[in-house]
Predict the structure.
Amino acid sequence: CEFHSPDPAVVNQHIATCGEFVKLAHDLGARGVKVRPNGLPKEVPVEKTLEQIAGALTECGKLAEAHGVEIWLEVHGAGTQEPPRIRAIMDACRHPSVGVCWNSNGADVKDGSVKESFDLLKGRLRSCHINDLQSAYPYRELFTLLSGHGYDRFTLCEYGKNVPAE
């Protein structure tokens, strides 16, 4: 589900869809539902879009709380994947059932390190998504930061290459 559309009907439909995923997560015993921003509409001021996403997340957080699950906002999308913008969304949302899914993006890395970005988001970190472990992304540092912060959850791994069947 995505909440950045300038069309309120689209945003409301995504909130309703998220509610269905929340119910499914509850029924399956899942811990959370991953959602994402997926960009910044050019015709809308950035701050307004970030506030809109936060408002939608607050609604989703209420649904999640009622079902004992969490909402994980993936650090994702052109312009929205920047950690300061995700932090702004989370600061505006403030619902305790809404957290962040780290996404291992190039935008996280400053001077070869993810520490600055990690420090912005670590207080709301609920999930972690990693991808190409053979890239130059500083995963060793990320794992050290996660461990030092007491992260005790799963890490989702997306590996874009086919593994030969044996």
Observations:
- The CA atoms of residues 43 and 87 lie 22 Å apart.
